[in-house]
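wait is this the right file?? whatever heres the structure
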């Protein structure tokens, strides 16, 4: 419960930071322009919000299962949806050997859960239940809405930054540029830094929602270790078998429970998912299990024991 509250507060704080960034960069462009770029961003994200499920499913070549095609999965989704007190989402399948899953839909009434054929082959029933609970948590927590709001603000920041950049280089009122702190150079620097900062904050929101979905899903399934075990297997499975659809649609990588595209170091700042080891550690902590140590005293992660 404490972890869920912390992640909710973190999301609010990050959204506030995005809004503050928008105000700062908005002050660097003529007031007559900001409403235009804001309107464009709102329209873009309005369309994305209402049609994202169809777009994402088509991009990943997912197809719906017919009633009776997969009774085990259908019962699992229906049971967990009932526990989450949300409508039973539609179930889709992606014909791909890479083990993964995602959820989409602008609200619980339009929820969709999609699994790859690879995940059905890799995970046990208990582990799959943990994954489905995680995806239903995204729907229950309205993460698509949160992501849309974050994307809208980040888009406005990017649009305004572009206006500032072009204004600093080729246009704008000379007196305004001279009076502004740092003049054209300062405006140009702001235009370069602001979109990067907006992206970093937006992705931090995505990572925070993943932690929240882990916590909510583990509680929903009453089995944190099942999800932890599944995550360990999924990380190894995706390292061995890359998700084929990512070559066509890398923009949808943030939706999957296991990041199909990942990196370490500075690249982790731009990751849509938190480190898998930390996700597993938090789930182990939820289960009340102390870390297991090897004979040499080193901590052994769950991923090395599953």
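ok assuming it is, sequence goes like this
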């Amino acid at each position: 419960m404490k972890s869920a509250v912390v992640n909710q507060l973190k999301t609010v704080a990050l959204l506030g930071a995005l809004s503050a960034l928008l105000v700062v960069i908005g002050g660097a462009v003529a007031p007559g322009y900001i409403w235009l770029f804001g309107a464009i961003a709102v329209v873009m994200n309005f369309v994305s919000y209402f049609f994202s499920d169809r777009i994402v499913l088509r991009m990943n070549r997912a197809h719906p299962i017919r009633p009776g095609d997969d009774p085990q999965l259908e019962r699992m989704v229906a049971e967990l949806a009932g526990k989450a007190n949300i409508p039973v989402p539609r179930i889709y399948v992606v014909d791909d050997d890479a083990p993964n899953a995602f959820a989409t839909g602008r609200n619980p009434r339009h929820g969709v859960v999609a699994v790859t054929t690879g995940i059905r082959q890799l995970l046990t029933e208990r582990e799959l239940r943990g994954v489905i609970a995680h995806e239903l948590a995204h729907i229950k927590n309205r993460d698509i809405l949160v992501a849309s709001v974050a994307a809208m603000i980040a888009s406005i920041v990017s649009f305004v930054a572009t206006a500032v950049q072009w204004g600093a280089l080729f246009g704008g009122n000379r007196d305004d540029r001279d009076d502004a702190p740092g003049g054209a150079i300062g405006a140009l620097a702001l235009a370069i830094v602001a979109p990067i900062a907006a992206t970093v904050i937006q992705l931090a929101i995505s990572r925070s929602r993943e932690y929240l979905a882990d916590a909510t899903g583990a509680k929903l399934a009453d089995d944190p270790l099942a999800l932890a075990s599944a995550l360990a297997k999924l990380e190894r499975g995706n390292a061995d078998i890359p998700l084929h659809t990512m070559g066509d649609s890398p923009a949808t990588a943030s939706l999957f429970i296991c990041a199909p595209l990942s990196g370490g170091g500075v690249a982790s700042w731009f990751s849509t998912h938190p480190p898998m080891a930390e996700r597993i550690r938090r789930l182990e902590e939820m289960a009340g299990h102390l870390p297991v140590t090897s004979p040499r005293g080193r901590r052994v992660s769950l991923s090395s024991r599953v």
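The mean pLDDT is 75. so i think its the right one actually
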